[in-house]
């Protein structure tokens, strides 16, 4: 299929040229966790804080991507894999432009996250495990989806009847139970900021 495709990998401008222009590193901050764990809240808060520091960002949220580029995908293992593959490829494009890309997707399994890391490149991939217990997420039930899943109205719901494997060695783990949003954001910002500014 790819025999007539001739991609140009040699470009006049490199990722580093673009990072130097922006005075930032184009890292991808990949936020992982159960529905309701706090990924979107922290991703949005982080983006605002980085923007206020003069850093150019892009936010990719699973729910939003599923209304556009991923609108044909559901929640089977196969569709989740394709969902993450596309999100990782898009992240890579932004990252190569020097843009700090913040992704907020459940990314439920080790193999899915390994794929994302391989697409983006190990040096640019910062995995953040946003951790709250299933009991806490269910108690929050921000969108009422856990109640629907328990009632059998949603099938293959992560943590209920579809697996979530906790990341074993993330760049950072943020436990959002028993911490305020501001405390979690302080920890997140303080951890990623040096990576964004390293080498500049
Ligand atoms: N079956 C099922 N399982 C999990 N989540 C579900 C499901 N159906 C709908 N939703 C809503 O979809 C959001 C998760 O989409 P993602 O693209 O992040 O999921 S995944 O990474 O492909 O597993 C998720 O958003 P978040 O709550 O922000 O995680 C839910 O709002
Ligand atoms: N420390 C915290 N960090 C992030 N969210 C928190 C925290 N404490 C409580 N919350 C609440 O948890 C919920 C997380 O929802 P959301 O960000 O939509 O999660 P997700 O994107 O993972 O589905 C929000 O209602 C938020 O106010």
What does this structure look like?
It is an enzyme of class 2 (transferase). This protein is an alpha/beta fold and 200 residues long. The protein has a single domain, classed as P-loop containing nucleotide triphosphate hydrolases (Rossmann fold), CATH 3.40.50. It contains 8 helices and 5 strands; from the N terminus they run αβαβααβαβααβα. It has helices at 15-22, 39-52, 62-65, 77-96, 110-120, 134-140, 145-150, 181-197, and strands at 28-32, 57-61, 100-104, 125-131, 172-175. It has a 5-stranded parallel beta sheet, sandwiched between helices. Helix 2 crosses helix 8 (181-197) and helix 4 (77-96) runs parallel beside helix 5. The longest helix has 20 residues, at 77-96. The model has no long low-confidence stretch (mean pLDDT 96). Bound molecules: 3'-phosphate-adenosine-5'-phosphate sulfate and adenosine-5'-diphosphate. Residues 33, 35-42, 104, 140, 142, 176, 179-181, 184 line the site of adenosine-5'-diphosphate.
